[in-house]
Amino acid sequence: MGYSILKGPRYKLHYICFACRKNFKQPNPKDVAERKGELSLLLNGFYFVKPKKEIPVDIIQYLQYEYFDKKVICPECGANMIKVPMSFETPPKKNIKEWKILQSFYEAKGYVTNELPDNKKMLIEVLENSLEWHISMLQNADDHKSYLEKLNDAKIRLKHEIEAIRNELNHLKI
Ligand SMILES: [Zn+2]
Q1: 161 and 120 belong to one structural domain
Q2: DSSP β-ladder status, 82-84 and 13-17
Q3: How far is ligand 1, taken at its centre, from the CA of residue 79, in Å?
Q4: 3-state secondary structure at position 119
Q5: Range of the domain at 113
Q6: How far does residue 45's CA lie from ligand 1's centre (Å)?
Q7: Is residue 111 part of a domain?
Q8: Going residue by residue through the chain (174 aa), what tens digit of pLDDT does each one get?
Q9: Is residue 21 part of a domain?
Q10: What is the distance in A from the centroid of ligand 1 to the CA of 19?
C-alpha cells in the first residue's frame, strides 16, 4: 500500500471556531490514516471496498473514535470547533453580530446554515416557528403506529431538539 503521487491529498474538512470567529481546514480522515499506515483498515471498516476484509469490533471502535468522534480543537485557542459543510461561507471576523446569530442558531438547531436570520428578532421568530413545528411533530407522532421502534427514537430526538431550541430562546430573550 504505497502513497499515490498521482492522487495527491483528498479534500479537507472545514471547521469553525466561535471563540476566534475563524474557519480552519483539517485533513481528510483518509489522508491522516494513510500517513499512519491505517488506510486499508479505515477503508475496510467504513467505506465501500472490494474485496471487504472483516475488521474486529475493537479495531472498529478505535477507528470510529480516532477518525470521526474525536473532538477537533482550534489550533489558535484550543476550543472545540464545529464541522461545517464545505459550501459554508464563514462570516468575516469583524462581523460580530452575524457570528452571534450563527452561534445561537447552532446552539438551538445543532447545525449551521448560510441562510441566517438578519437580526435577533428574526432569529427568535425562526426558532419559535421551529419549536412549534417540533412540538406538533411530537404530538402527532403516535398516528404512525406501524414504525413503533423507530417512532420512539424519533420522539427522543424531537424532545432533545425541543429542549435545545427552548434553551436558546430563553438565552435570547433575557
Ligand atoms: Zn479558536
Answers
A1: yes
A2: antiparallel
A3: 6
A4: coil
A5: 91-174
A6: 32
A7: yes
A8: 444 455 677 899 999 999 999 999 999 999 999 999 999 999 999 988 888 888 899 999 999 999 998 999 999 999 999 999 999 999 999 999 999 999 999 999 999 999 999 999 999 999 999 999 999 988 888 776 666 667 888 899 999 999 999 999 999 987
A9: yes
A10: 5
Query: Do 99 and 158 share a structural domain?
Result: yes
Q: How far is the CA of 44 from the centre of ligand 1 (A)?
A: 34
Last residue of a domain, one of 50, 73, 90: 90
Measured distance CA(93)–CA(16) in Å, rounded:
11
3-state secondary structure of 43: helix
**Does residue 85 have a cis bond before it (omega within 30 degrees)?**
no
- Ligand 1 centroid to 80 CA: how many Å? 8
**Residues measured by CB to lie within 5 Å of ligand 1, the ion:** 17, 19-20, 74, 76-77, 79
4 inside domain: no
The answer to whether the peptide bond before residue 9 is cis (omega within 30 degrees of 0) is no
Last residue of a domain, one of 29, 58, 90: 90
For ligand 1, the distance from its centroid to the CA atom of residue 22, given in whole angstroms, is 7
Do 162 and 118 fall into the same domain? Answer: yes
